[in-house]
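REQUEST FORM: STRUCTURE PREDICTION
Request ID: SP-0412
Submitted by: Lab K.M.
Chain count: 1
Length (residues): 631
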Amino acid sequence: MKKRISKSLLMTTLITGMCIGGAQGVFAAEALQEFTLDPMIVTATRTEKRDLDVPATTSVISNEQLVDAGATTVENALRFATGITFKSETIGEGNGEIMIRGKRRGTLVMVDGVPLNFRTGYYNLDNINIDDVERVEIVRGGGAVLYGSDTTGGVINIIMKNKRSNSISVSAGNYGVQKHQTSLQLGKLGVGASWEKKGAVDAVTYPASTGKFFDFLGGEKTIFSANYRFDDALKMNVDYSNHDYARRYNNKDGSPSDERHYDNDRNRITLNYNKDGWNATAYYNQCHIYYPYHYWTKGVKFEDARIYEYEDMKKGIDITKQFDFEKDTLIIGAKVENESYEFHDSYDPGYKVKAPIDYQYDRNIYSVFAQLDHKFDEKNNVIIGARETWTGSSPDGTNYSEFTPQIQYLYKVRDDLSAYASVSKSFTLPTMNDMYGMGDHHPNPDIKPEVGMHYEAGLKHISGDHSWKLAIFKSDVKDFITEDSDLEMAVNEDNRNMGIELSSEVVNSNGFSANWGISYGNPEYRDADTNYQWHRNYGRLQANAGLKYQANKFNIALNASYLYDRVYKNSQEAIKPFLLTTAHVSYSPTKDHEIFLNVDNMLDRIDITSHVSSRYKTLGTNFVLGYKYKF
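STATUS: Completed
RESULT:
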């Protein structure tokens, strides 16, 4: 595998390159969106629309609400959104999963419209600082027409700030946690950086069927981000993160089996042009993971007995053009993307004699789409769209293509009430990991793309200081792609779900605000192993709630998420409900100074957060106390 560029050289290159472009001049203050219960949403239709005018189930989480969730990264903040089930594998590890409407590997996560999902179908939201985020837009239900593959459950778009605040913060807590970060706006250049450390934690999983369990051995995380706006139309974003941690796999008697060190570097560069109806984004997204194993045999430790290393890369360009007419808005677009991965797996001959494995694959993905938004009158609006997606240049010549249409209808009952209905088709490509394997993951040349149909109807009432949203949904996905732990390969299964979501938000002038949501569904699957009989998956009932009080210099926010009627997928064994709770308290003696306290798992519960073989559990009550200075 190619040798990595050193971190210091990378940082110097990126900062120097952006500064050469010129950091002089004053950055024009952008019109920041004020907090409102009926915000402007871009992700759902690729055009700016008020939430009340969007024919889909949507949520917008502002930066203020992200902070109130008591989290420092986007990953943890999303735990309290309606209809979203969150699973994080280990303290400090990241690689969490966000499931929308019971779809594992069915959520497309984007930053400013650029996909984060890699070959494995997952992403890492643990390396995005909340201070850098303006808002998060969530669209539930299939979104293949606008964004292509990986949208069976929905779309999450993390919209970053164009203009940063000037601040520096330091914080520390129990479990050896420290986090320090800064944010600066220097003319047209914005820069952010953070460093986080987490201490060791024993037994972060319950014993598996073999009796083995994991210890977390501690780790560090470094994040750097920068953005430069050349003018009103052209901007550039650069992000780098390094996640370095270790964990140990123990035998039933507590003796070590193996120790795994994890060094993850991620780089993301985007260049965006937006003017006169044209929107073009060129992007480069790269992830490199170096994963050495230390093994114990009869009490003897073999250092670096196995080296497991891989690199994922995506680069592409996405172009759209918007045409505005008297009653119509037409958007046409095209996207070209190349994705590749490189893999190396070898053993020290002193520990195990096995031939090294080295391979590299890549392919191209192409798509074109069009969407027509037609307004019949002040009350009736219909949106019709379609996308054609196909692949090329696959290593073995296996390519795919799919046509995905969608139709949405919205009826404006009155100015504060709308009703909508939507029918759409989704399409998810098998990843190259599914097709060709990686390490212990076997190839499956017969894997099929998953195709789903999604039906939804809903009501939205948004008036003054309160809002209500109701949605009824149904999805049927054929050949849903999932992992078979026994076969150690990706396989196809059918997947279905039907349910209802109800949410509300209230903002009062006396300093109180509240939100709550209830989601009930019945996610099920069937495959050859189950004789094509339907079996349950994940949980059925989820409830979330938040309460905030702000007065003068104090801010107090409480959040909770409860998941009930849960099962393990493979064994169908019942799992006790989980209850996630957080508290955020801040005090600002002056506008430039803030003292804050975040407490997670206030009830000190030990809940299982996963629904598959590895039974990861929540950390006990943990807190972070910090100070922030704004200038």
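NOTES: The first strand starts at residue 40 and ends at 41.
Reviewed by: T.R.
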